[in-house]
């Protein structure tokens, strides 16, 4: 099950293989790391997937990820049709306004936070009981390096940091007892002029100008295959020791494997409170 975020561009669809079972999979990932808004766009992606392998079963739905009832109903339909859910990838998001907290639209600020955090919660809330019953599952919440910013796009930072902590909570509550893994995976997308603007919204013109200044000089972006490739590996079980942690798709899988002992001993790739002589709080105990 994959959720996606906000634009009007169709997503790439290509084949991959689950290294645990050697079965064919189909991965979809936006070329802009943003969302499909229209139901017909979602259906088009399903057609692309079926074109890759006619045996693939698909189920699509255009819904508001903030609507808990709609999410619950969709999850129940998926379980009824396919018998279970092995993987949840949550990628829905709303681009932030690039403005100080004292400026901008209160409505857009909250919308950005709500889609990220409430959407992640809603899908996790109703998928987790399914995975708990199965005694297995993988949840990937798509985050961002923006979670670690501290000025200029506060709604995005708040949302992505919340998602990171949510992945850690899911891990702490489910890993030992139910063999459910949870990751916060950062795959930085591609910025294009005009993709961040909602005309007429308070502060939007200034926000776009700031975003253009920030992104305009960048000529190379992470390719969508990087994020999709990392997610395939996360689902394979090779990086289960990173469950509950922040993943950067820009790093090589081999790098994580080589640093496994260091990551576990130093409790790396997590957000914690520096409590001075009392250490870092909380520690992640497997």
Automatic annotation (TrEMBL):
Short name of one Pfam family: adh_short
Transmembrane found in the keyword field: no
InterPro entries hit by this protein: NAD(P)-bd_dom_sf, SDR_fam
GO molecular function ontology, one term from the record: oxidoreductase activity, acting on the CH-OH group of donors, NAD or NADP as acceptor
Superkingdom classification of source: Eukaryota
CDD domains in alphabetical order: SDR_c
Keyword entries, A-Z: Oxidoreductase
UniProt keyword annotation of S-adenosyl-L-methionine present: no
UniProt similarity note: Belongs to the short-chain dehydrogenases/reductases (SDR) family.
Protein name in the entry: Dehydrogenase/ SDR family member 4
Provenance organism: Cyphellophora attinorum
